[in-house]
Design goal:
The protein is α/β, with parallel strands linked by helices and 466 residues long. The chain has one domain: Alkaline Phosphatase, subunit A. It is 32% helix and 15% strand. The chain contains 13 helices and 17 strands. The strands form 5 sheets. Strands 1, 4, 5, 6, 7, 8, 11, 12 and 15 form a 9-stranded mixed sheet that branches. A two-stranded antiparallel ribbon has the order 2-3. It has a two-stranded antiparallel ribbon with strand order 9-10. Helix 8 packs antiparallel against helix 9 and helix 11 packs parallel to helix 12. The longest helix has 25 residues. The radius of gyration is 23 Å and the shape is globular.
Length: 466
């Protein structure tokens, strides 16, 4: 009855056997475990535009005249300071500094520097809050993206959206509280579903991916020959069987499954409605760009994100691949910016004119930055940039952050943070703060330890709060 019973319990119900999981039967379809935020939130919802691959801050938002002046000269050892490099450029005989070939101008009343590659973003800089001093601990894509999305470089932890869905729930019982959109037909570093997974949280908190095409959510529609009434009867009987099983073994995942089946049933009508953008007026399509008429593009997903926040979806994660430019950066980054710049600016403008930006937080950024030296051969009009975790740029707009503001600086070589460094966990703590959550208090006990998104550190960056 001692060790044997404990072992049996762990097989039948591993989560509750290893710690208090704040079980899902305390949750309603639209309420999280917190019941209400810890304090009054500035943001009610988040749209996170994740630029996968690591956009070059040096060619977009953080110009360095010294790099142009010293173009082709070796990166000084005093600046590198023995920092580790990836295997892709670590074997180079030298590290020639590469000044950006693109022109920068100060824009708006805020005077923010923006590259010629981002003309639409340049028009809205007074709505943006730039953080130019981000830094991370990971130097390769998979651990770096996992770190940004889950707070750990190792897979298995809950994603940001899962934490928020677990803590705060959803404002619309007919749609998931956490929706994922991935640009179609884009290639680069792979994106795994665990990036929007629930980790050790109950499974109904994982992100639901909406796809382009006839079936936005896989396996949602009834098979041929089954009516909605038949489906309803089937789910009712299934629920009775699952409740019997729950009484026997008390596995919280059983109730999570019940919740997922019920959500799927309600989504059969709500998802087609929200994903059908055919009723949008022409001026909206023109604002987001011609690509917005093609489902699954970045522009179409940005437009869909606006429709989802109108329906009360709390966290929308939009992924766009292709920013990993180790070589031929000038031509490749032009393509990326052409695909994303107009739609990003349009989304923020659209939210603002509808009165939604006041309580919606929009985030733009990748998993790390790029090096100030060229990976591979440097020519007059061509260069590549390797991964660089020690400094990069993100921007935010909307609920609770200062508009027309830039925070943090990097050194003249664009290689190290100079002032006001913002660690990944600081960013995550600030995001949760804007949603009314004390990041130290939203925890989940698993395998004998209380986990949180920010692991064991992280501080709110109060200087960027409005």
């Amino acid at each position: 009855m001692g060790l044997g019973a404990a072992a049996l319990s762990s097989f039948l119900n591993p989560i509750t056997a290893l710690g208090n999981n704040q079980a899902t039967n305390n949750l309603s379809f639209n309420g999280g475990v917190l019941g209400k935020p810890h304090f009054a939130p500035k943001a009610k919802r988040v749209i996170y535009l994740f630029q996968s691959g690591g956009p070059s801050q040096l060619d977009l938002f953080d110009p360095k005249p010294l790099l142009k002046k010293m173009n082709g000269e070796d990166l000084p050892d005093s600046i590198r300071g023995g920092q580790r490099l990836t295997g892709m450029s670590g074997g180079q005989a030298n590290f020639p500094l590469a000044g950006s070939i693109f022109d920068f101008k100060q824009r708006g009343e805020s005077g923010a520097w923006v590259s010629e590659l981002m003309p639409h973003t340049a028009e809205i800089v007074d709505d943006l809050c730039f953080v130019k001093s981000m830094y991370t601990e990971a130097i390769n894509h998979d651990p770096a993206i996992t770190f940004m999305q889950t707070g750990s470089q190792l897979p298995g932890r809950p994603s940001i959206g899962a934490w928020l869905n677990y803590g705060l729930g959803s404002a619309n019982e007919n749609l998931p509280g956490f929706v994922v959109l991935v640009t179609k037909n884009k290639y680069g570093q792979p994106l795994y579903s665990r990036l929007w997974g629930n980790g050790f949280l109950p499974s109904e908190h994982q992100g639901v991916q909406f796809r382009a095409g006839k079936d936005p959510v896989l396996y949602l529609n009834n098979p041929d020959g089954m009516t909605n009434l038949s489906r309803r009867d089937q789910l009712d009987y299934l629920k009775k069987l699952q409740e019997i099983q729950f009484e026997q073994i008390a596995d919280p995942e059983i109730e999570a499954r019940i919740a997922q089946y019920e959500m799927a049933y309600r989504m059969q009508t709500s998802v087609p409605e929200v994903t059908d953008t055919s009723g949008e007026p022409d001026y909206i399509y023109d604002m987001y760009g011609e690509d917005s008429r093609q489902p699954g593009t970045y522009a179409a997903n940005a437009l869909l994100a606006r429709r989802l926040v109108e329906k009360g979806v709390k966290f929308i994660q939009l992924y766009h691949q292709g920013w990993d430019q180790h070589g031929a950066l000038p031509s490749a980054i032009k393509t990326q910016c052409k695909e994303t710049d107009q739609a990003t600016a349009a989304l923020i403008t659209d939210l603002k004119q509808r009165g939604l930006l006041e309580d919606t937080l929009v985030i733009w950024g990748g998993e790390f930055g790029r090096t100030s030296y060229s990976q591979g051969k440097l020519t007059v009009d061509n260069y590549g940039r390797d991964h660089h975790p020690k400094c990069y740029t993100m921007f935010m707009a909307g609920a609770g952050v200062k508009a027309g503001f830039s925070y943090g600086t990097t050194d003249d070589f664009g290689y190290n943070v100079q002032t006001n460094g913002v660690h990944v966990h600081d960013f995550q703590a600030t995001l949760m703060h804007l949603l009314g959550i004390n990041h130290e208090q939203l925890t989940f006990k698993f395998q004998g330890r209380r986990y949180r998104l920010t692991d064991v550190h992280g501080k709110v960056v109060k200087d960027i709060l409005a």
